[in-house]
Amino acid sequence: MENLSGEPCIAVDYECSFKDYVKTISHHAEYDAQPGRPEFCSHACRTLRDAACRAESDCRYDAAYFYYMRIICIIEKNNLRNEKGMLSLLGECVDSVERLLKKELREFFDQKLHELHKRKKEWITDCSLKSVHDGNILEHPEEEHRKRRQGLLDNEKTNLENTKKTLSASHIPVTTSKLSNPSCPYVNVCDNSQEKEIIVPPKRASNVSPNAYVSWSYNCGTLRKSGRKRGIVNLGNTCYLNSVVQMLSSTPLGSYFLSDNYTKGISDTQKTECRLVNTFSFVMRELFRVECTFPVSPSLFKQTIDTVNSTFSGFFQQDANEFLRILLEGIHNNLNSKRGVKSEMSEIDNINGSDVDIAGKYWAQYTKLNSSVIVDLCIFQERSSIVCSICKKKSRSFPPSLGIEVPIQFSKKQISIEDCLGAYCREETLDSDSLYHCISCKKNVKATKQLLLYSLPKILFITIKRFRSYGDFSNKISDPIVFQKHLDMAPFMCSNQKNTIYSLVSVVNHQGSTGGGHYTADCITSEGVWFSVSDERVEESKSPDYRHAYILCYVRAG
């Protein structure tokens, strides 16, 4: 029932009242306290009482208050007053709660609030000194935020113009393109037998008027219901974290962490990883407390991320897509019920057999060692096929994937996300500098390589590859990539999987350049209303920002 390493020490990163602070701790103490056997609940209460005493002795009064409130909730929900020792324990906890509210917890909160005011004062002083140095007048935070966003847009435009000038003045040697240009941008092949390969005619994305891409808005036709969305405090360049978390809150993965069911598989894992899912769950539950007017604090979640992956330590600017991958992998590692399983993996014959046979062997090997909510909701298989130019034999592998990173298909016409997916699935020629070693021919040969999707996940992440590097030179591609509320993945499949329609639920946007920028998110709520979230600031979404869309998150229908 209780995972003691998941105690919520509520950080004070934003001004709120003592009443709201206490209400937040109480909310999590009472959250999802499920009924259980009397003897089990009694043991849990005594364990929590010991944890509360340790927390008090360590002056962690927020944790102590949480434990006492949790004990009261368990006793009352399970009618344990008549169990041995429970009535006296209940009285002890009620007295402790009243004592903490009158003195220790209030003083603890006042100290945290004082530290917050001190940090704010230091920040204002720094900004004032910078403004005086720059000859500017310190603005109101809202105006400062607006000007910062506009500055990012202006800076992005300037960088784009400078990049164009640099490229036009430079001679960059270009090799012959390795991408073939067939009449159809991608091929849909259903391999039912190796002897007689059945070729399914290429499927094309439905013809949609260009106007359909640019005319829709997020909340067009939405029937308004009561619903709000909370922002997340920016701790210092943590907009990448805030935007990804907001994106996940609109998915079934976010909903999964609203109950304590996730705790069933984490008892034997490391403490830092246990803290990852507990602090992530805490943020998710806070985001759904829409009766609150102040933003959610991600402090403990950020601290845990720092310990799980040192890349994100400190308060430097980070890539949202990289953070998404690290977070999903961390959640999987924490909740993997087959962690520690030892299994010898036999080599798979990639040539002989149907797609169904080979893909099944790859999936069986993967699921021997992996089982979690991430596998259930986010993992899918791609088919990577390589055809030898001499013997024409096809080697196929079916690796698991967490998402798709699509290139931008350069065109004078309007570019859609379907165009980018088509470029991702197009055949590539392996020639002189990347020859393929054919097992049958026993030598390095020219070949063609192609990626197609074999299966589909419940949640699909599509990242648009806007950032490019050429040695020491890097730039951001700000071409608009248009997308709609619905996406059909059938044209990019190599199997006859049904139910290929996805609905857009959130978008992570990036404003700025490779040198610096700001992440925001557009997310749909359970009431069907879209909100634009920029850290603490929340407003209803308007039209999609095709130039800055970076990660598209879709959920499969049904």
Automatic annotation (TrEMBL):
Signal peptide: none
GO annotation, biological process: protein deubiquitination; proteolysis
Domain USP per the UniProt entry, residue ranges: 230-557
Annotated keywords: Hydrolase, Protease, Thiol protease, Ubl conjugation pathway
Protein name stated in the entry: Ubiquitin carboxyl-terminal hydrolase
Xref: CDD domains: Peptidase_C19R
PANTHER family the UniProt entry points to: UBIQUITIN CARBOXYL-TERMINAL HYDROLASE (PTHR21646:SF24)
Biological source species: Trypanosoma vivax (strain Y486)
InterPro entries membership: Papain-like_cys_pep_sf, Peptidase_C19_UCH, Ub_carboxyl-term_hydrolase, USP, USP_CS
PROSITE patterns, per the entry: USP_1, USP_2, USP_3
Listed GO MF terms: cysteine-type deubiquitinase activity
